[in-house]
Every structure is written in C-alpha cells, then in structure tokens.
Specification:
six-stranded mixed sheet, 8 helices
Length: 185
C-alpha cells in the first residue's frame, strides 16, 4: 500500500501571530515537513482547504500533518500509518492547545469535517466514536502558534538528530551548532 501524507499549510494562521515574517517560517516549516514526509512515505501533497476532495481522490488511509509542526518525530508518522493499516479508523496526535498535530484517517468520508480550529477536536472524536469507529491517540505534542513556542521548538530540535528540520534550524540560528550554544546547551 502506498502511503500518502498531506501537509496542512498554515501560513495564514502563522501570519496572524507572527506578522509578515511568518512567510519565512512557514516556508521553512513546509520544506522541513516535505523532506520528512518524503523520507517516511515517499509521497507529498501540500493542501489547504482541499482535504476532503483529496481524501476522496486518494481513497485509502492517509495522514494529515499540521504545517506548524516541522519538529514532529518521524516515529509519530510511522506509528499513525501502522495503526491505520492495522484497522484503526482514526489516529489523533493531540497538541497542547486542544487541537491536533497529526490526523490519520482510514476512510475518506471522515475527512469531510476535520477540525481545523482549536476546540473542535473533542467533538469530532466524540462524533466518530458514536458511529462505532475506532479512534486511538498518539502522545501529546506541540504546535508552533505563538512567538514563545519558538523557544520550545529550539529546545526540542536540540534533542533531535542534527539533520532534522534543517530549514527551521537555520531560521532559528542553528548554523553549525550555534543554536545549542545560544539556548544554553
């Protein structure tokens, strides 16, 4: 089975928080996510509001990654696909603010009402479970939504392999290890 991963492009949301500079962040984030997805799944599609249409075209299990998580561990993507392939209907990677960083969906019809706003995740999961479908959660993770999240992101990247999220590391100033020095490592 070919694995398909969609990246939910978040430039507009990042621009609301970070201003015009968000274009740089978003470009780096998407570049890093595309590299991650290519390493893991072999197929990349960048999407915005066309998740449902894309889901119908794919007609197989797929994973959506939030575009403000360039630091998502590769294992989370593999785990989502493994769970979908074992028969789980929905895999949710909840984030620290009541939303999600990764969604794995087995049936295209479930993508029709995916929660795009904070606070919509739990009602969506409840609706799916009432239909008798199986939902499982991956470990909690965080999205980059506010300027203070950049410090958390820098710390997270220090614990990951050096080649991980290179464009984001570069924007954070990690040129040959300077990020680790700057943040106190």
């Amino acid at each position: 089975m070919q694995r398909t991963t969609l990246i939910l492009e978040r430039t507009a949301a990042l621009r609301e928080t970070f201003g015009i500079e968000a274009s740089w962040w978003s470009n780096a984030f998407v570049a890093d996510l595309q590299a991650l997805v290519t390493r893991i799944t072999g197929t990349t599609a960048t999407i915005t509001s066309t998740v449902r249409i894309t889901a119908e075209i794919i007609d197989q299990p797929f994973v959506i990654i939030s575009g403000d998580t360039p630091h998502i561990p590769e294992t989370r993507i593999r785990d989502a696909f493994t769970l979908l392939e074992s028969g789980i209907d929905v895999v949710v990677g909840p984030c620290d603010r009541g939303s999600w960083y990764i969604l794995g969906i087995r049936q295209p019809g479930l993508a029709a009402h995916i929660p795009l706003a904070t606070g919509g995740l739990l009602p969506w999961i409840d609706q799916i479970q009432r239909r008798g479908l199986h939902v499982t959660q991956l470990p909690l993770w965080f999205r980059v939504m506010y300027p203070t999240d950049l410090a958390t992101l820098a710390v997270a990247l220090r614990t990951m392999p050096a080649g991980y999220a290179p464009a984001t590391r570069h924007l954070l100033g990690d040129n040959e290890g300077s990020l680790a020095r700057e943040w106190g490592a």
